[in-house]
Known about the structure:
Layout: E1 3-8, H1 15-23, E2 40-45, H2 49-58, E3 62-64, E4 67-72, H3 87-91, E5 99-105, H4 120-151, H5 157-172, E6 193-198, H6 205-217, E7 220-224, H7 226-231, H8 237-248, H9 254-266, E8 268-275, E9 278-285, H10 290-297, H11 299-303, E10 305-312, H12 313-319, H13 322-327, E11 332-334, E12 344-350
Parallel strand pairs: 1-4, 1-5, 3-9, 5-6, 6-7, 8-12
Antiparallel strand pairs: 2-4, 8-9, 10-11, 10-12
Helix pairs in contact: 2-12, 4-5
The site of magnesium ion (MG) has 5 residues, from α1.
Amino acid sequence: MSLSWGLVGLPNVGKSTLFNALTRANVPTSIYPFCTIEPHKGIVQVPDERLYALANIVKPERIIPAVIEFWDIAGLIKGSSKGEGLGNEFLSHIRGVDGILHIVRCFDSPNIPTLGEGDPIKDIELINIELSLSDLTIVERRLEKIKSLRRVGKGDPEEEAQLKVIRERLLRGDSIRDLPVIKDLPLLSWKPVIYVANTDSLDNPKVLKLLDWGKERKEVVIPVLAKIEEELAEFSDEERMTFLRDGYGVEESTLHRLVREAYRLLGLISFFTIWSKEVRAWTVVSGTKAPQAAGKIHSDFEKNFIKVEVIPVEKLILAESWAKARELGYIRIEGKEYIVKDGDVLYFKAG
Ligand SMILES: Nc1nc2c(ncn2[C@@H]2O[C@H](COP(=O)(O)OP(=O)(O)OP(=O)(O)O)[C@@H](O)[C@H]2O)c(=O)[nH]1
Ligand SMILES: [Mg+2]
C-alpha cells in the first residue's frame, strides 16, 4: 500500500514550502500567488525507529522502510469549484489520495499577498466550501446517471437514496465522513484531513486560535514551521531536530507527527519482515489477517499460506537474534485467523 496525501489550501499559504521541507525537493515557491501550476509528487520514507533497531541486530544488506507520498497542487480560491483560478482542474489530481493536508496560513508577513480573509478559520471554511462544491458536481452527475438508469428499470435505488443524503449534507456544508463510502465515487469530503497551521512562531495567536478550533471540532491541527524547516532541508534529520528543539522547543519532527496522525486517521499499522539480506517495513489496515498481510509481499504467499511465525519487534530486539528468541520461546506460531498487530515481525510459511 502506497500511502498518499494531497496538500490543499489557498495560494501563498506555504504548500510548496511544506512540500519541500517534507520531501527535500526543491519545487519553486514565491511571493506571487499561483506559483504552483503543475502538480508535484514527492516520496518520503516513513520514519520508524523500530525498523532501524531491528536492522541493528540483523545487519541486513538492505533496509526498506514504508513510504508515504505527498502531492503539491495549485492553490484554491473562492470560486475554484466553478473554474476560478487554477484550483478546480487540479483537484482532480488528488481525488485518488488517501488523505488531505489542509495548509492554513498562520504567519504574518505583509509583503506576501494573501488571497484569504486573514483569519485561519474563515480561510478553512472558504476552502472547505470549494471542496464540497467540487464534490457536489460529482454527486449531481452520478445522480443524473442513476436517474436515467432508473427510468429503464436499472440503477440501484439504495445508492440513489445515499447520494441524496450526501447531496443534502454537502449543500449544508456538513461533514459526510461518517457516511458509508460509495465505490468509485472519489469525493474529497470523505477523506481524513490534517490541518497544518503554518507559522513562524508557535505562539502566534492564529495558531492558538486554530488549535482551540481543532479541539472543539475534534479535528487534527498540527503547527508547523514550514519556512524554517525548508531552510534546514540541507541538514541531516538530527541536525534539523537539534536546531528546532533548541530554537523553538519543537520535540518531534513534522514528518513524524504527520505520519503518526496519517496512520491513526486511516487505521493503519506496520509490520516487519526479515529475509537474509533485507529488513523491511510494511503497512496494512488494522484488523488485517495473516494471509492478507502475506499477500502484500506476494499474492502466492496469500494463496498458499500455511502458517506464520510471530514476534513483537521489541521482544526480538531484546533477544538480539531470531535463534535466541526461539530458544527463549518468544516466537509464536499462528494460523490463518491471526490478526496482525502493530510492530509484529512476521515470517510466513507458504506451500
Ligand atoms: N514568513 C513565512 N513565509 C512563508 C512561510 N511559508 C511559506 N512562506 C513564504 O510564502 C510564499 C508562498 O509560499 P509557497 O510555498 O510558494 O506557497 P503555496 O501555498 O505553495 O502557493 P501557491 O503555489 O501559489 O498556491 C513564499 O515566499 C514562501 O517563502 C512561513 O511559514 N513563514
Ligand atoms: Mg505552491
